[in-house]
Design goal:
By secondary structure, this protein is α/β, with parallel strands linked by helices. The protein has two domains: 36 residues, no CATH class; 149 residues, Rossmann fold.
Length: 229
């Protein structure tokens, strides 16, 4: 009778989504019942986000709609891998939080790279493999994949420990103009470089960044922006 009941429990969970697994209770007691444990599938979308722009949000939306992920986490790098000068991390994190909020609870910012730098005790180049390993070590409630634009595909072999990274988690590629196939739907070619240049020239950035991110930039006078709308 006990065997039949247990078999029925598994049968009941067969149609469940592929991010549900059957497991024993936390005590590990074989006599305890089985329950469904939900593993949240997270797409890690890393970058400088200096600043985050509308292309980032379109890519996050595309990734969640097309790939098997439940959430997207925006991961601003703490220190650029090639020593590029960036706006202060706390500003970039705050802008990512503001941008993510426009998409809903499935998108949020994560400060893991700041945590890694604090443990190291000194600024060091952000390495994707270290970020993924640090996140995976924190809990078992999430599985991770990477989200990258098609403009970065050819750079993957040059990444730090890229072979190990590819084994550690899947990599989902979002088509981005002008690096996508001609007949593929692609994210418009919007860049943070363009946004910064527009701000430095006093030009409008309407349509390039979420309006609340633009307000934050002007409020804090980032990238040479003035407080005027």
């Amino acid at each position: 009778m006990r065997t039949r009941e247990r078999r029925n429990r598994f049968r009941a969970m067969t149609p469940a989504q592929d991010n549900h697994i059957a497991t024993k209770d936390a005590t590990g007691n074989p006599g305890a019942g089985w329950y469904t444990k939900v593993i949240v599938r997270v797409g890690l979308y890393g970058g400088s986000f200096d600043p985050p722009h509308i292309g980032h949000l379109l890519a996050a939306t595309y990734a969640r709609a097309v790939f098997p992920i439940d959430e997207v986490w925006l991961i601003p790098c703490h220190t650029h891998a090639f020593a590029k000068e960036l706006a202060p991390f706390e500003h970039r994190l705050a802008m990512c939080e503001i941008a993510a909020a426009t998409l809903g609870p499935w998108c949020r910012a994560n400060a893991i790279e700041r945590d890694i730098a604090e443990v190291a005790g000194a600024p060091s180049p952000s390495r994707t493999i270290d970020t993924v390993r640090a996140l995976a070590s924190r809990d078992s409630e999430h599985s991770f994949a990477l989200i990258i634009g098609s403009d970065l595909v050819n750079e993957i072999p040059s990444w730090h420990r890229s072979a190990e990274l590819s084994r550690l988690c899947p990599i989902h590629v979002v088509p981005r103009q002008p690096f996508a196939a001609p007949d593929a739907p692609a994210i418009p070619d919007v860049s943070s470089t363009t946004v910064r240049a527009q701000l430095a020239e006093g030009a409008s950035i309407a349509g390039l960044v979420p309006h609340n991110v633009a307000a934050y930039i002007r409020r804090h006078h980032l990238y040479g922006a003035t407080a005027a709308p």
